[in-house]
Write a structure and sequence with these properties.
Length: about 475
């Protein structure tokens, strides 16, 4: 049996997450839930120049909307915190001091300017940065004495010659030569930990078992593996997933204007639709099914079925899948979503109205927001005083059609099937052609010559509203005919 996994989503609070970011969160959440493990939220917020106000809350809001509940994190607490890197300084100091004491790290007395100069020179010469040995060979006792006089120094990890081997779940065994990395800095001269050092310490101390992240982080993995070796512990399992591309190609990026996940919420996508769609950008069910519930995604997620190629956003498929999920929602839940729309609120519909509408109109929609124009067309006043409406209702047989149907529906069960059957019977009994019978009815109920199935419209409107509209239209039709014959 698969052991419970501890996975993490570790964004920087640099703004609202886009689809690529959230795809990573989804896979980590699904696998944690699949194995009965823990899903952890951690903020990598030490790059203060890139952090934005509200960035952390935007991440949390997106996770909450999608239903990606956390077992640990800055918003829920936990036994392995703090869950913001900016609050974990003592943890990094303790781990760095341990490496220094064991000789796995050494002090570097070069200034930040010298370090940057050396790095640029190495790159220009085609050499890996970090190979300058001017500080590596200083005896530890001398280095400590010197540091006591000069103050804080950078710390570097000793990287010895030889291969750095590691394994990725998707790419298999990989390796890189140690000298290609050089003696990498783990603590800057100002005491701030470098990215890879902080991540390795965090994952180690939070007992992360699976690091599921984007392929862009693959280059960081050998550096973090070196740190695990220095800590004398086994690294977690690494799973580097392919990149999510924009629909026109190219990497999704906040800087390039990639849409935030919450924009899809505001457009009317449901959480389960986004969860389903983004899961399919990395993974597929053995059944071949594409419309998958949250429960099925959890039950079937399999890291061995993750794809190895980049996937581009397909807006048409995304919208289609959204429609499948919307139509599968219980009418009561869909009615709740519709009630929150400003366009629906002004119609002053009650819960029963919305539930009936959901029962018969959901199949016409893809997004929650589609209900605005659809329900407005049905429930708003039909506006029977317009010239077009008067022309239809003034037709010679309009009054007969309306009178016949109104009388028949008085005794009909108020559900779409019986209403439709009785309406068809009335048309045949009246002897009127379809257009002459149905067009006045549609105008009476909606004020329009086009729209959904008339029985569905009547059912959604309800008994009282339908009868009232038919009666009003019938009065107009009679008046128009009296005027013409008078």
């Amino acid at each position: 049996m698969t052991r419970p996994a501890r996975t993490r989503y570790a964004p920087s609070p640099t703004g609202a997450p886009h689809l690529g970011n959230i795809r990573t969160a989804i896979l980590n959440w699904l696998y944690a839930r699949r194995t009965g493990g823990a899903f952890i939220l951690r903020f990598e917020d030490t790059d203060t120049a890139r952090n934005v106000e509200g960035g952390e809350q935007a991440q949390i809001e997106a996770l909450d909307w999608l239903g990606l509940d956390r077992d640990e994190g800055p918003d829920v607490g936990g036994d392995y915190g703090p869950y913001r890197q900016s609050e974990r300084g003592p943890h990094y100091e303790r781990r760095a001091a341990a490496l220094l004491e064991r000789g796995a790290a050494f002090r570097c007395f070069c200034s930040s300017e010298q370090i940057e100069t050396d790095r640029e020179a190495a790159i220009a010469a085609g050499r890996p940065p970090g190979l300058d040995r001017r500080c590596r060979e200083i005896p530890p006792a001398d280095a400590e004495a010197r540091a006591a006089e000069t103050g804080p120094t950078a710390l570097r990890l000793r990287v010895d010659p030889g291969p750095i081997e590691f394994r990725d779940r998707l790419k298999g065994a990989l390796s890189i030569d140690g000298p290609d990395l050089g003696d990498m800095i783990i603590v800057r001269p100002d005491g701030r930990p470098t990215y890879n050092f902080a991540v390795a310490v965090d994952d180690l101390e939070m007992e992360i078992s699976h690091v599921i992240r984007g392929i862009g982080h693959l280059s960081n993995t050998p550096k973090q593996v070196l740190l695990y070796r220095a800590f004398d512990v086994e690294p977690p399992e690494f799973v580097h997933i392919p990149t999510v591309l924009a629909s026109g190609g190219g990497k999704l990026s906040k800087r390039a204007g990639a849409r935030g996940v919450l924009e899809y919420r505001d457009e009317g996508y449901t959480p389960d639709a986004i969860l389903n769609y983004l899961s399919l950008l990395a993974w597929s069910s053995e059944t071949g099914d594409e419309v998958l519930s949250r429960e099925r995604l959890i039950a079937e997620i399999d890291l061995d079925r993750l794809g190895a190629t980049d996937a581009a956003i397909d807006p048409e498929k995304m919208r289609w899948l959204a429609g499948q999920h919307l139509r599968a929602e219980p009418p009561e839940r869909l009615a709740e979503r519709w009630a929150a729309l400003p366009e629906i609120a002004v119609l002053e519909l009650d819960d029963d109205d919305l539930v009936r509408a959901a029962e018969v109109f959901a199949h016409r929609m893809y997004l929650v927001n589609d209900a605005g124009p659809e329900l407005t067309a049905v429930f708003a006043s039909p506006g029977l005083e317009t010239p077009d409406a008067r022309e239809v209702l003034g037709a010679p047989d309009a009054a007969l059609a309306l009178e016949t149907l109104a009388a028949a529906w008085e005794e009909t069960e108020w559900s779409p099937g019986p209403l439709k059957a009785r309406m068809r019977d009335c048309m045949q009994t009246s002897g009127l052609p379809g257009k002459a019978f149905f067009q006045p009815t549609r105008v009476a109920l909606m004020g329009s010559a086009h729209g959904p199935d008339l029985a569905d419209v009547a059912y959604a409107l309800g008994v009282d509203r339908t009868r009232s509209r038919l009666a009003t239209a019938l009065e107009i039709a009679r008046d128009e005919n009296r005027t013409e014959t008078g």
